[in-house]
Amino acid sequence: MASSNHLKLLGGWFSPFVMRVKIALNIKSLVYENIEETLNPKSQLLLQLNPMHKKIPVLLHGDKTICESRIIVEYVDEVWNSGPSFLHSDAYDRAIARFWAAYIDDKLFVAMIHALKEEDEEARKAYLEEIEDSLVTMEDELQKCCREGKGYFGGEEIGLVDITFGSLLCWVSVIETVNGRKMIVEEKHPCLVKWAERFEFDPNVKGLIPETEKLIEFALQMKWKGAASAK
């Protein structure tokens, strides 16, 4: 098993992408040094470690530098066997998980960013509807897992899709609060409601989720640009 010595995580408490890595490290029971990046301005350390994208998170494993949250999560899963795997052993199941993780980032998260930054009310409503459509899609996918007796997208344990989607729940709460519009509701998303509660109270996740009001305050200070500086 690879040593966890000299593990450092450059990130920010506000970032859902950093949260993904922290959850992965927790599941593997890995000890790491957390280095907070403010992004205002971006530190020389961040610019040095991730000169291409200049975004958090960045994982330092000894003299190795790994960037991009989903890449980091898969790296942690492949290098350490000290806890449950985030990806299935079957190649097809891994491909499906990666598909949904990409859907969450490319479809749901992009709509969330636009909904937060958009000042035009009609345009913002369109993005909110896009978010709701994506949530219905994820509910349908989760219902398949529920019918098979699984509590998570990944099975009986938290997997890649759960980590990817679950890390966005705190920002969904921000959007709900700012717009006065509940996004995940029992009537439309019965499985998602139960899954979200299960995810948030998991010991590997609990304590990592920022308070909604604190996130709103941060986002206003950053003019909603902070989340876009992470991936």
UniProtKB/TrEMBL annotation:
Which Pfam families does the record associate with it?
A: GST_C, GST_N
Name a GO molecular-function annotation: glutathione transferase activity
The processes (GO biological process) annotated in the record are:
glutathione metabolic process; toxin catabolic process
Domain GST N-terminal per the UniProt entry, residue ranges: 5-84
InterPro entries, sorted: Glutathione-S-Trfase_C-like (IPR010987), Glutathione-S-Trfase_C_sf (IPR036282), Glutathione_S-Trfase (IPR040079), Glutathione_S-Trfase_N (IPR004045), GST_C (IPR004046), GST_C_Tau (IPR045074), Omega/Tau-like (IPR045073), Thioredoxin-like_sf (IPR036249)
Q: Name one GO cellular component term.
A: cytoplasm
Q: Specify the domain of life of the species encoding this protein.
A: Eukaryota
Span of domain GST C-terminal: 90-226
Q: What is its EC number?
A: 2.5.1.18
Reactions mediated catalytically: RX + glutathione = an S-substituted glutathione + a halide anion + H(+)
Q: Which UniProt keywords apply?
A: Detoxification, Transferase
Quote the PANTHER family the UniProt record gives: GLUTATHIONE S-TRANSFERASE, GST, SUPERFAMILY, GST DOMAIN CONTAINING, GLUTATHIONE TRANSFERASE
Which family would the database say this protein is a member of? Belongs to the GST superfamily. Tau family.
**What is the protein's given name?**
glutathione transferase
The uppermost taxa in this organism's lineage are: Eukaryota, Viridiplantae, Streptophyta, Embryophyta, Tracheophyta
